[in-house]
Design goal:
With 134 residues, the chain is mainly α. The protein is built from 4 helices and 2 strands, in the order E-E-H-H-H-H. A two-stranded antiparallel sheet has the order 1-2.
Length: 134
């Protein structure tokens, strides 16, 4: 089963059910991570943490929520969603570097996630979903 963009009744279905499910998974997981991060920041503040740990945590939570919003935009057939996700992934690389994480792992994960998203938007091959994003 596939879905079509709104107002495009004459176009054949272009987004596979698995792609739609994957986008919802991205929304749910990043939304939960974003909310849990903000709760964690509250706990950091209560425990007396100050400075960069709190700021980096707030930024990481905001980036997770932005990635969830980007996936929702793709579900609404908006190409802007892809660019929001790519920007969020780039922000995660910077946050990983600033937080002292493994830059190699962050870059590999980021490139892989954007590449997978772009790849799934290339299906079905005869009528790519990417072409239907506005």
């Amino acid at each position: 089963m596939t879905t079509t963009p709104p107002g495009a009744e004459t176009l054949p279905a272009v987004r596979a059910k698995t792609t739609t499910g994957w986008l919802w998974l991205v929304i749910l997981l990043n939304g939960m991570i974003g909310v849990m991060t903000f709760v964690g920041v509250g706990m950091l503040a209560i425990s007396g943490a100050k400075g960069s740990a709190v700021i980096l945590s707030l930024l990481a939570g905001a980036v997770s929520l932005a990635i969830a919003a980007g996936a929702f935009l793709i579900l609404q057939w908006k190409k802007l969603g892809f660019y929001v996700i790519a920007g969020g992934v780039a922000a995660n690389i910077v946050l990983s570097f600033l937080g002292g994480g493994s830059l190699g792992t962050a870059v590999f994960g980021a490139v892989l996630s954007v590449a997978v998203l772009y790849y799934v938007l290339q299906f079905p091959p005869e009528n790519k979903a990417w072409k239907h994003l506005t």
